[in-house]
Each structure stands twice: as structure tokens, then as C-alpha cells.
Amino acid sequence: MILEINGVLDAASVARVRGLIDRGAWADGRATAGYQSALAKDNAQLPEDSPEGREAAQIVLDALGRSLLFQTAALPAEIFPPLFNRYAGGQGFGVHVDNAFRQTRDGRRIRTDLSATLFLEPPESYDGGELVIEEGSTSQAVKLAAGDMVLYPATTLHEVRPVTRGVRVACFFWVQSLVPEQHKRSILFDMDLAMQKLRGEIGDGHPSLVALTGAYHNLLRLWAAG
Ligand code: NI
After folding, report:
1. CB atoms near residue 218 (< 10 Å)
2. 213 Cα–ligand 1 center, Å
3. Nearest alpha-carbon partner for 145 in 3, 16, 7, 1
4. Long-range CB contacts (< 8 A, 24+ apart) of 27-33?
5. What residue spans define the domains of the chain?
6. 41: which DSSP letter?
7. What is the mean pLDDT of each run of 10 residues along the chain (226 residues)?
8. C-alpha distances in angstroms, 81 versus 9, 32, 45, 138, 164?
């Protein structure tokens, strides 16, 4: 499932994040790539220990905590601390798959079940830079407004098309989900959305809705255990 989540950051938060990261010390993005993806990767990245990057990442994490749609879709167990990248002058990131695990600076190993890109530059200000995600026999090109995010399975092949005008700035991170298997997460997501809608229509206390909520949590308990 490829899911767009609009307005994760509002305009003021985008401006705050940009104000921080734009004055950070950017470095070659290949420093954090795996062996295979280093061959395809050509961009700039804020180092993981960048103070501006850390502060901006916290703004993103706070916003994710408030996003019901993100919580419902990702069922996050752990979130890799958000990082920031920048593409300009023909830079891109060829087709690759993300590493299965990422190690945080404090030594935690996070399994990458989901990948996320949060766009931080208005799409009309640059050409190219689409995130192209392959799913089965189809592919989807994603280029969103500043503050909008796409969440997609980390198991997919994906690329960032070369940026031929302007600058593409984005935040990216990975999620270890309570439910590692995508099709199970997808079923829970559909159930949760339907229950949220029902709550608005028939009220929280309807016995059938209480039963459905119980079934949802029993499935989550079962599937989170593996
Ligand atoms: Ni990637």
C-alpha cells in the first residue's frame, strides 16, 4: 500500500524545519548508503549528528505522533530518527531497495518495514525529483506539496528521478511496524478506517462496534506477536 498523508506539517512547521536545516552543514549522501545503493545515490544529506537536523527531526516526530492516519497505517513500534536530503543540478537516486535494518546512533537496530518521504519544497519550484515506487507490475510517481508525506513498503524498488531545475528538499525515515507483514497491516488499516467512520455514524457505544473493536485488537495482538 502506497499512502499519501496530506498536511503532516503545516506551513509554519515547514518553515521552522527549513529554517533549521537550511543552515546545517550538508554532506555527501553516499556516506549513509549501503554498498549497492551507494552506487545509485547522488544527493546531499544532513549528517545524523547535525544539531539542526536533530531539532528538525523532533518537529517531524511530534507531528507524526499527532497524525491519526500515520498511526493507523504504520502501527509504529519504532521510528528511525528522521533525516533530511537535498537534490539539485541533475542529482537523483537510481532504482534501489532500502536496507532491511538501520542502526541508530545509540545502537538500536530498526527493521525497515515502511519507508516515508515528507516533502519540504513546493513541487512547482523544481523539475524532476519524483519518487517512483514500483509495486507489482505498476509504478507510481509521487511528488507532493510541502508538508505532505508518502508512506510505502520498504520492500519495494524505488528511485528519485533526477532534479533538472531548482532544489528538492525532503525528510525521510523508516518505520519498524508492530505488524511486519504488509498485507496484514493493510487489513487492519481498512478495518480501522471503517470503524472510525462507523463511530461518527452510530456512536462509540454501539454493541456491534464494541465487538468489532475487540476483534480488531485481537487481530492486532495476534499479528503483532508474529
Ligand atoms: Ni530508498
Report:
1. 10
2. 35
3. 7
4. 29/85, 29/93, 32/83
5. 3-177, 182-223
6. B
7. 96 98 93 74 93 98 98 97 97 94 92 98 98 93 98 96 98 98 96 95 92 96 89
8. 16, 13, 14, 30, 29
Q: Separation of 37 CA from ligand 1 center, angstroms?
A: 8
Q: What CATH number does domain 3-177 carry, 2.60.120.620, 3.90.1170.20, 3.20.20.140, 3.40.50.1000?
A: 2.60.120.620
| Residues found in the chain | 226
pTM above 0.90, yes or no: yes
Q: How far is the CA of 226 from the centre of ligand 1 (A)?
A: 25
Ligand 1 centroid–CA 93 distance in Å is 8
The β-bridge relationship of strands 158-160 and 93-96 is: antiparallel
Q: What's the rounded Cα separation, in Å, for the pair 130 and 128? A: 6
- d(CA 211, ligand 1 centre) in Å: 40
Question: Any residues with CB less than 8 A from the CB of 84 and at least 6 apart, and which?
Answer: 21, 24, 45, 46, 53, 56, 57, 120, 169, 170, 171, 172
- The burial of 199, by beta-carbon neighbours within 10 Å (0-12 exposed, 13-18 middle, 19 or more buried), is given as middle
Q: Are 94 and 86 in contact (CB under 8 A)?
A: no
